């Protein structure tokens, strides 16, 4: 059985150019989902019409490793509006684990204090007709 252990997260533009690495992601704050959207068709049959996948992370770091505020990135929306640019959110696995990256998405972010400290929460959700286009998994 494979273990998913992540050392950092990273925001990319749609051309796969890194916009910043985020260390200090919290273990209890990583959520990965991939769910089918089903449709009932004739004779009581159900088919998967599309898939929705998403990554939600919490980070105790408020800045990228190289400097610059995460929430001030043009790839992250903090007020519910569309960010300036579409991007990709990637979880970087440690050696022997896996990397997971979204397709092009609008990344939403906010500050959160529910764990008794300042954390940044980033959420990226995408939908597509193919499972592999929603979230891509590769060896680290």
In short:
The chain has 140 residues and is mainly β. The chain has one helix at residues 131-134, and strands at residues 6-13, 18-23, 31-40, 46-59, 76-77, 87-93, 98-102, 107-112, 119-128, 135-139.
Count of the separate structural domains: 1
Query: What is the H/E string?
Result: EEEEEEEEEHE
- Report helical residue fraction: under 10%
Fill in the CATH topology.
Answer: Pnp Oxidase, Chain A
- What is the strand arrangement across the widest sheet? 2-1-6-7-10
Strand portion: over 45%
Query: How many DSSP H or I helices?
Result: 1
Give the biggest beta sheet: 5 strands, antiparallel
CATH architecture: Roll
Question: Could you give the distance between the termini?
Answer: 15 Å
Protein structure class = mainly beta
Description:
The chain has 140 residues and is mainly β. It has a single domain (6-139), classed as Pnp Oxidase, Chain A. The strands form two sheets. It has a five-stranded antiparallel beta sheet. A five-stranded mixed beta sheet has the order 3-4-9-8-5. A hairpin with a 4-residue loop joins strand 6 (87-93) and strand 7. It has one helix at residues 131-134, and strands at 6-13, 18-23, 31-40, 46-59, 76-77, 87-93, 98-102, 107-112, 119-128, 135-139. The chain contains one helix and ten strands; from the N terminus they run βββββββββαβ. The longest helix has 4 residues, at 131-134. It is globular and about 55 Å long. The mean pLDDT is 87. The chain is 3% helix and 52% strand.
């Amino acid at each position: 059985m494979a273990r998913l252990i992540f050392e950092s997260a990273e925001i990319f533009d749609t051309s796969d150019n890194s916009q910043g690495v985020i260390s200090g992601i919290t273990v209890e704050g990583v959520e990965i989902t991939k769910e089918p959207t089903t449709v009932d068709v004739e004779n009581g049959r159900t088919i998967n019409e599309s898939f929705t996948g998403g990554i939600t992370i919490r980070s105790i770091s408020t800045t990228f490793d190289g400097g610059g505020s995460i929430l001030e990135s043009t790839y992250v929306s903090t007020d519910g509006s569309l960010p300036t640019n579409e991007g990709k959110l990637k979880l970087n696995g440690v050696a022997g684990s896996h990397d997971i990256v979204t397709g092009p998405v609008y990344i939403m972010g906010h500050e959160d204090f529910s764990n008794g400290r300042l954390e940044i929460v980033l959420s990226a959700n995408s939908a597509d007709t193919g499972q592999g286009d929603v979230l891509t998994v590769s060896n680290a």
